[in-house]
Specification:
287 residues, alpha+beta, Jelly Rolls, Arc Repressor Mutant, subunit A, 3 domains, eight-stranded antiparallel sheet, 8 strands, 47% helix
Length: 287
C-alpha cells in the first residue's frame, strides 16, 4: 500500500506500508527515505555495504541511492518505509534555521547529505514513525494530518543528523572533512559486521569495506565504539543466540552454528562468560 502526501509542486512524499512480507528480494533507487520494519528484519545491500534493519533500528538512505533489499522470514514482516520529496529536508532545515531553533548545533552545507547508517530507535525520530504507523493502521487520517506528521518527522531526523555532527567532532582527526569521512567509513564497517555477523568476517574484510588499513581500523574502531571489531561481532552473535534460545525452534547446537560460532565448546564458554550461565541453563530458566 502506498500512501501519498500531496505537495504544492509535482513531487510528493509518500509512505510504503506492507504487512505480509515473508520472502522478498528487490532493487530500488529513490528519494531520501527512512526504512523501518516490525515483526522481523530486512537486509539492505548498498554498493559494497550491508545494513541489517531490525525492529530496534531504522535505516536512512539519501536521495538517488541505489539499493537491493532481501527479506527471509518464517513469519510475516511488516515494512514501513517513508520517502521524502526532493528538497523537502532542505525546506524544513531552512525553516528551522530561520526560527533559530538549531542555533546550538553545528550545521552542514545547504545541500544535506545524511549519514547512511542504521540508527537505534530514539526519542526524536521513533515516536514520529510510530505515530504515523498507528494513524495509517487505524485508517482514520487526513491529508492535513499527514503533512504535519511528515514535517515533525523531518524535524526529528534533522536533530539526529546534527547530533551526529557532534559525534564527528570528537573523532581523532585534524580537518573536519577528514573526521566526517572517517565517521562514515567506521560506521560502514560496523554496519557490515552487524549485518553479516553470522558469516566468517575478518579484520581484512572490514578494513576493505572501510577503505582503511587493518591496523588503522582496529585502533579507531576500538576508540570510537569501545570494542574491537572481533569483540563487536562476538557480542552480536551472543545477543542473537540469546534471542533464539528464548524460542523452541532450534536446538542449542543448531543455534551455535546459526549465529556463526564454529565450536559448541567456545560458544558455551563465551555465553557463560557473558550471561553467567550456559546456553542450556539459560533456556531452562526462560522456560
Amino acid at each position: 500500500m502506498i500512501i501519498s502526501v500531496p505537495a504544492t509542486d509535482s513531487h510528493s512524499s509518500y509512505i510504503l506500508y506492507e504487512t505480509e512480507y515473508h520472502r522478498y528480494s528487490g532493487e530500488g533507487i529513490g528519494l531520501l527515505s527512512i526504512k523501518s520494519f516490525f515483526g522481523g528484519q530486512a537486509l539492505y545491500e548498498v554498493g559494497r555495504n550491508y545494513f541489517r534493519v531490525a525492529e530496534d533500528t531504522h535505516l536512512v538512505l539519501n536521495h538517488g541511492q541505489p539499493y537491493a533489499i532481501h527479506i527471509e522470514a518464517e513469519q510475516a514482516v511488516e515494512s514501513f518505509c517513508i520517502f521524502f520529496a526532493e528538497g523537502f529536508a532542505e525546506d524544513v532545515h531552512r525553516a528551522l534555521t530561520l526560527l533559530a531553533k538549531l542555533d546550538d548545533v553545528t550545521r552542514p552545507d545547504a545541500s544535506l547529505n545524511f549519514f547512511e547508517k542504521t540508527y537505534h530507535h530514539d526519542s526524536c525520530v521513533t515516536p514520529a514513525i510510530l505515530k504515523l504507523r498507528t494513524g495509517i493502521k487505524s485508517g482514520n487520517i487526513t491529508t492535513g494530518w499527514l503533512e504535519e506528521q511528515m514535517h515533525l518527522l523531518m524535524q526529528g531526523l534533522l536533530h539526529v543528523h546534527y547530533h551526529v555532527y557532534r559525534e564527528v567532532e570528537l573523532l581523532p582527526a585534524i580537518r573536519p572533512a577528514t573526521r566526517e569521512e572517517l565517521y562514515r567509513r567506521l560506521h560502514s564497517a560496523r554496519d557490515y559486521a552487524c549485518a553479516l555477523f553470522a558469516s566468517p568476517i575478518t579484520i581484512v574484510d572490514l578494513a576493505a569495506i572501510a577503505c582503511m588499513s587493518p591496523n588503522h581500523l582496529l585502533r579507531t574502531f576500538k576508540e570510537v565504539f569501545g570494542q574491537t571489531p572481533h569483540q563487536f561481532i562476538i557480542t552480536k552473535r551472543l545477543d542473537e543466540a540469546q534471542r533464539l534460545l528464548e524460542q523452541d525452534h532450534y536446538s542449542v547446537t543448531d543455534i551455535c552454528f546459526e549465529v556463526g560460532f564454529e565450536s559448541l565448546g567456545s560458544f558455551s564458554t563465551l555465553f557463560r562468560r557473558r550471561f553467567g550461565m550456559s546456553p542450556t541453563e539459560f533456556r531452562q530458566q526462560k522456560r
